[in-house]
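Sanity check. The docking grid for iron/sulfur cluster depends on where the pocket ends up, so I'm generating a full predicted complex first rather than guessing from homology. Inputs follow.
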Amino acid sequence: MYSEDDMLMLSGIQHFRFCPRQWALIHMEQQWEENRLTTEGNILHKHVDDPFYRQKCKENICLRSVNVASRKLGLYGVTDVVELHPTLEENNSILHPGYPGRWILYPIEYKHGRPKKNQIDEVQLAAQAMCLEEIYGVPVMKGALYYEQTKRRVEVCFTEQLRDIVQDCALQMHNTYLSARIPQASYQQFCDKCSLINICMPLKPKDMSASYYLKKSLYEEAT
Ligand code: SF4
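Predicted complex below; grid placement will be based on this.
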């Protein structure tokens, strides 16, 4: 169980899964730069993140910007959407003060792109589900990712394999934070999509100083 002071931001799990160095630069050094992908994501979330928005869609209730946390994972954050699905079963369901009846929790995360081959989005959603489970004491077995580009939902089952990845990532995030060491850069193809590429400088040889590398890059660009 982590104490309140040791909690880390849940949203960082997607950065950590993408690249531990990216996570460390953002969450340990507070570095940030926007690129097209991050700007598109911000615009989408401006429309989604309204905590006062309540919507009834068919028989489901849609709650937005729900605060979540897990002391076991040491993570806290805000979910885009938690849908309440009606059920007659008493087990594995919750009561809500605003809505009579029993409800199954179903988290939904909005993404601006399209489904990816890695499991970054699934891991973030599963972490939210595990937080909801800890808060409400009920299992959360499924959720969905909504992709703006395809305008479709993809349902995600929170399998043991996915939960293991969440636990492993959370543990590594805490270990990295405690070590106070930023992981080394190592250039990969996906670095070209990273908004921090100019801060990280993954192509800089390890034995070259940052200032010399920058001067050299600027000179090469100009000639
Ligand atoms: S540029 Fe590459 S190595 Fe550097 S933080 Fe981004 S993804 Fe990680």
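Relevant for the grid: The mean pLDDT is 90.
Also worth noting: The radius of gyration is 20 Å.
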